[in-house]
């Protein structure tokens, strides 16, 4: 869908809309939220990974040899789920990208300041040729953008180009999108919905409530 940001993709199709309705509805139980969320994350990941470089390969089918395209094997693909809700993307991500490295980052939100508080960081790693790294940071909710910008920074500090970094989120708020692009105009954002606003507690409205609680049954 078209929008005012060059690097924001809002993925819209009937399956996405149906899945969004399911995860948003307050009476959907945890299993229902998980199933719909996983469907949604797979579609978002398909969209996000359209930027992966491809290369020509020769394949031999039972009938003949031919030349075709596949993902360049000479790159490093990183999936970075922001714990804990971002984990919902992981099973789908490793299914469709078995070669990916999963680098978890753990943070929770200080309820007063709405700033992320770090408790786990699996990102410190040597980066030989930063241009060959493609990073997908996953978090179902892009609210203030504080967590996502902190994680993007971890990767840009290693020299990985913004163009190779993508935030993948189910539901976003205008404020979070603005925040991310004000600091990192060249990263990509892939979302299924841009909602109305954040409430005084930093929750996205209409949103889906606390994504972690709804996915992990800790309400
Ligand atoms: N995190 C959530 O889980 N929900 C929101 O609405 C905002 C941040």
Which helices and strands occur, and which strands form pairs?
Elements: E1 8-10, H1 14-24, H2 30-48, E2 54-60, E3 65-71, E4 76-83, H3 90-96, E5 101-102, E6 105-109, E7 116-121, E8 133-138, E9 141-142, H4 146-156, E10 165-172, H5 174-183, E11 188-194, E12 197-198, E13 204-205, H6 211-216
Parallel strand pairs: 1-11, 4-5, 4-6, 4-8, 8-10, 9-10, 10-11
Antiparallel strand pairs: 2-3, 6-7, 12-13
Helix pairs in contact: 1-2, 2-3
The structure holds uracil.
The site of uracil has 10 residues, from helix 6.
List keywords for this structure.
binds uracil, globular, nine-stranded mixed beta sheet, 6 helices, 219 residues, two-stranded antiparallel sheet, alpha/beta
Polypeptide structure, described:
This protein is an alpha/beta fold and 219 residues long. The protein has 6 helices and 13 strands. The strands form 3 sheets. Strands 1, 4, 5, 6, 7, 8, 9, 10 and 11 form a 9-stranded mixed sheet that branches. Helix 3 links the parallel strand 4 and strand 5. Helix 1 packs antiparallel against helix 2 and helix 2 packs across helix 3. The longest helix has 19 residues. It is globular, with a radius of gyration of 18 Å. The two termini are 33 Å apart. The mean pLDDT is 95. The structure holds uracil. The site of uracil has 10 residues, from helix 6.
């Amino acid at each position: 869908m078209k929008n005012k940001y060059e690097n924001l993709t809002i993925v819209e199709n009937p399956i996405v809309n149906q899945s969004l309705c399911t995860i948003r509805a307050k009476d959907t139980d945890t299993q229902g939220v998980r199933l719909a969320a996983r469907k949604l994350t797979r579609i978002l990941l398909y969209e996000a990974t359209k930027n992966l470089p491809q290369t020509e390969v020769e394949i031999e089918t039972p009938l003949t040899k031919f030349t075709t395209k596949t993902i360049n094997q000479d790159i490093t693909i990183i999936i970075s789920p922001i714990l804990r809700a971002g984990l919902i993307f992981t099973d789908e991500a490793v299914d469709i990208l078995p070669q990916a490295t999963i680098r978890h980052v753990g943070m929770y939100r200080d309820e007063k300041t709405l700033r992320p508080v770090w408790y786990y960081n699996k990102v410190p790693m040597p980066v030989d040729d930063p241009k060959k790294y493609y990073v997908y940071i996953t978090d179902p909710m892009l609210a203030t953008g504080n967590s996502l910008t902190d994680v993007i920074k971890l990767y840009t500090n290693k020299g990985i180009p913004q163009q190779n970094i993508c935030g993948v989120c189910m539901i976003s708020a205008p404020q979070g999108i603005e925040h991310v692009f004000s600091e990192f105009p060249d990263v990509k954002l892939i979302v299924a919905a841009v909602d109305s606003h954040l409430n005084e507690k930093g929750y996205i409205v209409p949103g889906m409530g606390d994504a972690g609680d709804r996915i992990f049954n800790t309400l």
